[in-house]
Specification:
Elements: E1 3-12, H1 15-24, E2 29-30, E3 37-38, E4 48-52, E5 57-62, H2 67-71, E6 82-87, H3 90-99, E7 105-108, E8 112-113, E9 115-121, E10 127-133
């Protein structure tokens, strides 16, 4: 079970404004490779822009305080943003969390087609995502 930093998710009320800021002020590029296919009918229908420094993506997501309720999950990744890691074995990572008593929300593929995602809180309440891409 290997984890690699995949993306940081920043939440906003205005995706276009934030996209312009990250591209114009920070000099990030619009991400065009390996973009997730958003599942807009499964609980989160917000707009998302994708920028990158060439190595790590930043997802600029429209804030939705109801996404957790809409999907029946405790952890809401688009209320305040999150940091995301990709794994090669999500089931092993879930067992790892369970062995340590860390509760998580299993979003499955509710937000992104082909990505199985879980979300959990660190001890200070920051949201962490771990996901596995189908076939990876």
């Amino acid at each position: 079970m290997k984890l690699t930093l995949h993306h940081i998710n920043v939440v906003t009320e205005n995706v276009e404004r934030l996209d312009n800021f990250y591209r114009d002020v920070l000099g990030l590029d619009r991400e065009t490779e390996g973009l997730p296919v958003l599942e807009k009918k499964k609980g989160y229908a917000g707009d998302v822009a994708f920028v990158t420094d060439g190595a790590i993506q930043t997802h600029l997501a429209q804030k939705d305080v109801m996404a957790g309720f809409n999907t029946g999950q405790i952890v809401n990744p688009v209320s305040h943003g999150h940091i995301a890691y990709r794994t090669d074995d999500l089931d092993a990572f879930k067992a790892h969390l369970e062995a340590r008593g860390v509760r998580y929300s299993d979003w499955g593929e509710r937000a992104v087609a082909g990505w199985r995602q879980i979300f959990f809180y660190d001890p200070d309440g920051n949201v962490i995502e771990v996901h596995q891409v189908d076939g990876a």
